[in-house]
Structure formats: C-alpha cells, structure tokens
Amino acid sequence: MTTLPVAEVRPGLFSRSTRLSPQLAAGYATLLALLGTATIWSTLLFLWNLWVTDALKSIGMIIPIVSVVLILRVWKSLDWQMDGTWWGLGLLLLTIFAVRLRDQSVLVFMLTPQWSIYVPPHSLVVVAYATGAVLLFGGTRLVRASLFPLLLLWFVNPVPHVFNVLVDLPLQRASAHVARAFAMALGQPLSPDQLRLMFTPTFGMFIAPGCNGIRGAITMGFIALVAGYLYRFRWYAHAAVVAAAILLGYLFNFVRLCVLVLYYIVALHIPWLQSRAEMGDYIIGACLFLLGTFLLFYAINRLKESPGQLQPQSTLASPQTHSPRWVGLRLAVMACIALLGAVGVARSLARDHFANNVDQLRRDQNAPGQFPAHVGDYTLVRTWNENLNVGTLLFHWAEYAPASTTPENQGPHISIGISPVLGSHDTLICHSARGEDPLWHGEIALPTAAHDTVSFSGAFFNSGSLQYLEATTICNGSACGEYSAASTSFGFVYSRPTPQSIFNQDPARPIPILIRAETIDTTLPADTARQQMTAAIRAFVASINLDTLTRPYRRS
C-alpha cells in the first residue's frame, strides 16, 4: 500500500465531496449571487430608471460590472478559495428584509430641505448585498482583499441630489460665463440672456446643465480611481491622480465651450454648418475627452514607473484549508434565495400589468380616479390625472369645494391625490428637488370617518403667488399613517407598515395620499393661513373613509 501526500489527498476530498472544482464552484456562486439580486428588485429598478433617464448619473451602470470583474480578479488570485461563513447569509437576509420594509413604508431623514436620504439608501443596499454574497462564499479573507471593489459599489448612484443643487447648477452658470466672456473677447455681440449665446436671433447655443463639465469630470475621476487601484498607488498618489483627473475634465470642458464658440462663429459664414451644430458639439467633446484620457494614462504610466509611488505587493497569509462539506449547502441556499427573488419579481410584474399591451396601458394611464361626489360639506368640482411627459400616471386628483362658501367667506378648496403606482413616497422630497422649501413641516393627527386618527406629514409653503398646506400619508391595507418631526432643518418622516404587508408573499400596494388646501391671499400671516387650512383639511378628512377610498388601487 502506498501513502499519498497530504497535498494530493485534499483535492481528492474536495472533488469527491462536492464533485466541483474550485473554479466551477466559484462560477456557480457568482451566477447564483447575480440571480439573487432579484430579491432587491425595487432597488435594481430604481437604479435602472436613474441611469437611463439622467445622463449625469448614467456612468453608474458601469460600476457594478467593474466591481464584479475586480472581485473575480481578487478571488482568482486567492485560487478561488471557498472559505465562506454563514454570517454572509445573515447579512443577505437583513438586506432583503430592509428592502422589503422600505418598499412598504417611508423612512426619510431630512438633513436640510435640499438634502434628504431614504433609508436604506439604494447604494447601501447594493454594497450590503454584495458584501453578504462575498462573505457567504469567500469568507472574511476575500472581503478584506476585495474591499475596494465592494466600496466602489456605493457609486452606483454617483451623484446625490444635494450635489446637483450645490455644485451642478453653479457650475452651469460658471460655464456660461466663460463661454460668453470668450465670445465677447472675440468681438462677437450677444443677447443679454446669461445662459443663451445668441449669435443671430435664430442661431445660438444654450448652456444647459449638461454643458458644465460634470459628466466628463466624474468619468475621468472614476477612470483614475480604478486605475490607481489596479496599479497599487499609495494613498497620496491615488488621491492626487483622482483630483487631477477631475480638474482635467473640468478644464477640457471649458476648452470645449471655447472651441464650440469658434464653431458657431465659423458657422455664421457657412450656413451648411448651422444645422449640424449639435453633431459638431458631440465630435468636439469626444475628441477632447479622448485627448484628456490619453493625458491621464500618460501621467498614470509615469507614476507606475516610480517605485516610491507604489504600494508593496500585498502578501496574504496562506488560507487555512477547511472541509468543503458546506459548499454545496451554501450553493443550495443561494439558489433558494434566487428562486424566491424570481418568484417575487414575477408577482410584481403580474401585479403591475407589465404584460399588458401598450394600448390598454395607455387607456389605464388616462382613466379617471374613483372619488365620491360629496365628502361631508364638500362637493366634487373636477377630477384630473397627473402624468409624466412620457404618459406615466403619477396621481389621480380630485378638487372639492365647501358647500358653505359665500362671496364674503371664501373657504379654501381641498384637493386630494391618490397614487396607485408610486408605492412608498414622500412629496416633501419632490418639493425639495424643485427648490421649494417649506416654511413649516411636522405631524398632523386627523380623525377620519372610520372613527380612527391618522397621522399625516404636513408641510406649509408660500410660493409668492399663493400659500398652501399639504398633508401626506401612506396606507398599507386598511392601516394608514405617516409621521414627521416638526423641524425645518433636521428630522425624519416615516410610516409604520403592518406585519402582513412585509411578510405576505403578495402584499397590497402601499398607497400614498396627498391632501392640499391653498389660498391666493399671500398677505395673510403664515401662521394664520396654516391654522385656517389645517382646520379645513381636518373637516374634510373627518368625513372620508381612507380604507374605502384606497381599496380600488391596492392590487392595480
């Protein structure tokens, strides 16, 4: 009888117990983890809509691909070690539960009127899911080695809204100023509009937010960030390269605007070029971006040749060899998670009627809401739908007038909106996105016709032409409620979902409700106007049953 070396026995154990090579097991683990993202479907859907509708944030769709490739690269350097831990499963389940809770409720932290954070943030969900999957199959050693690509996933939403407000728009004005100054330095008369450079009454250029260089700067910054990681730059060299790449993107945008001004001046004498100005802008921008990328990689290659700028090659300790008997069980558990996610997505698609034909969907978008003709002393005046430009329905609306209105005592009209499509939603975020800051916001408790008291999140605004009070709540089944901290600088808005809505395999859709009272009397003191409109909304809600009102939309 011959004795086999230990090095030959261990691979044999691995193949006999699992019938999988380490490479194949890692491949199955990666595939199942990707399929398992169906359990965070609402986050994926939000991010996809963000990427395809906002050109500034479209770079985010590249981040998951880059991150997965970098994680697999690290895993390969560790010889595809399957040294996972069940703590990863706990993190995955916690992430899935948090997404489910967010889908059925509202939890928004208000840092400032312009800066609000939904909890959990979509970026955090992606990072937590990926970390849980890596921990489940690769263990803590793989998590430590792939920390950079895991944290890179935070940038799936590369530009938060507060950045748009505080940085994006000011840069637009700065870009317009540079282009205008350059054109005037060339002796070109322009119209007085600061954002439009009109060379003739019918031929000119508009400095839109997309012309401020932020897209190119963000792209260059991400290229430098990943390149610095791959070439193992020290932290100070890495930070310097990223900062230089961002500044280079801005600089080349100003160059692009100046070259575009020259193009327009030439086009004044060559009419054939005037109808092709947009394509000319694309060509100029592409050429400058390629030149900037070339300069960036030239600087990176120079740094790569300097040993003092590079980190020493990391030497990870040799992994301890564990029995692979749990590898197949972990794969089976991940397969179950992926299957549950697929079932949930199928139910969601069926519930949302994504399989309907376009004509039927269009008719549904234009169908009026179902509202009673009378609510207490209020009479229905008109109904309408609030739709996006692409036709997608947001809210069914109805306006009610008080029956006791007289010419001497004009009571405020009440408008009520019901959204059968938005799910968990807080309208205060929409106002902040439009730059409309509330003078007051807090919680309003209102009794209803069902003899219960429902908490609404209230916000009072003055637009200059009218004053209005909005009260929002969210209904999960027959339970309604939304709660708000009474603060204009910091606080949070939240709702309380029912356990049935979280754990039910086919939960009722959460229905946002928005009630609004307004007045054109802007001379009325704000506190007095808010008190009057609060009383009007209170009288209106006291005569309505929210359960009956939302029931037709819960499964639509």
What does this structure look like?
The protein is an alpha+beta fold and 556 residues long. The chain folds into three domains: 20-158 and 324-351, no CATH class; 162-309, no CATH class; 362-553, no CATH class. 50% of the residues lie in helices and 16% in strands. The chain is built from 18 helices and 15 strands. The chain has helices at 6-18, 22-35, 41-53, 63-77, 87-103, 122-145, 147-152, 161-185, 214-230, 235-267, 271-274, 277-304, 327-351, 358-366, 427-433, 499-503, 526-541, 546-550; strands at 107-112, 115-118, 196-200, 203-206, 374-375, 378-387, 393-402, 414-418, 440-447, 453-462, 467-476, 479-480, 483-484, 491-494, 511-519. Strands 5, 6, 7, 8, 9, 10, 11, 12 and 15 form a nine-stranded antiparallel beta sheet that branches. It has a four-stranded antiparallel beta sheet with strand order 2-1-14-13, with no helix packed on it. The longest helix is centred in the middle third of the chain and has 33 residues, at 235-267. The protein starts with 5 loop residues before the first helix and ends in a 6-residue tail after the last helix.
